[in-house]
Amino acid sequence: MISTSSSEFVGNKQALRLLSAAKAKNRASGSWLFTGPPSVGKSTLARWFAALLLCSDETSDYPCGQCIHCRKIYHGSHPDVETISLALQAEQSGKPSREIGIDSIRNIIERIYLRPFEANRKVYLIEDASTMTEEAANAFLKTLEEPPDFVTIVLIAIDDYSLPETIRSRCYRVNLQPVPHSEITRYLVNSLGFEQEEANMIATLSNGRPGWAIRATHDRALVAQVNDDWKYLNKILQSNDIERLKSAEEISKDWSNKPNNRDDLYSLLFNWIGIIRLATIKSFQENGSKAYLSENVDLIRFLSSLGPQHGYELIQQILKAIYMLDSNANVRLVLENLFLKLPRV
């Protein structure tokens, strides 16, 4: 449901304040770029921003969550809020979608000057913005630079540098950071009613991603998947170069054959970052999840032996791979390069 106060948005409260201030100062029109890791809250923030702009209570710093505009945005049925994403493109075409093409952008450009149907403004949410083709991005430049004064465009991507400078320079930027463990734990306990120990465990596994943590509270398969992903990392670390190249090939084939594997691969890599960060930079004792992680003790022991500096460098290598994947780089080449650089047990 759309958050109606800052207490219902987990972490990154400065983003809410920035957007509320932009509305108050009549600076919310134009183009925005929201970036951050998967499941950190970018799409939630974008819908919250849309509700803030269209809410019937024009004087509030937060959407009321009760008016017809807020309710329709929550249900995804507001005619003045349009979303473009790879998932929606695939659903509409019945075929896997890997990029946002020129036709999708032209469709926006052709209708952007039409007045809103119900509200005083229109909002366009462009998820997976980094997958725009060069042709689509170039066609969008003039519209991004000078949209109608009743239009707000929000681009959503993992990293702003996965988009061309010509796009970035035309947008106000809002970057969301991983949310501290304590904030996610507090939200799970105070807002969702979880026991401290279980909330602590889920927050630890979330790796700073509140969206993942909330989904994991009712989909325990996500928790099991983290364990599987850590075991897969252990397998890679114990593999020779030929085996690593074969693993990269297998994953790239899955990426090509299944449209949902984009998110699965990002989740795999971010779960790797989580265990590396915990083992080399943080203390398991302070996160209270040592017992849960005991079956990965060999992996933890090896990663811990690398030390904070090497752990940081590993995380940067994985992040670089994620940013390249988000820029539609060749999946097999990106993974081959990453896997060959990972240390050996």
From TrEMBL:
GO terms for biological process: DNA-templated DNA replication. Gene3D superfamilies: P-loop containing nucleotide triphosphate hydrolases (3.40.50.300). Its EC number is 2.7.7.7. Pfam families: DNA_pol3_delta2 (PF13177). GO terms for molecular function: 3'-5' exonuclease activity; DNA-directed DNA polymerase activity. Keywords: Nucleotidyltransferase, Transferase. This is DNA polymerase III, delta prime subunit. It comes from the Bacteria. It is an enzyme of class 2 (transferase). InterPro entries: DNA_pol_HolB, DNA_Rep/Repair_Clamp_Loader, P-loop_NTPase.
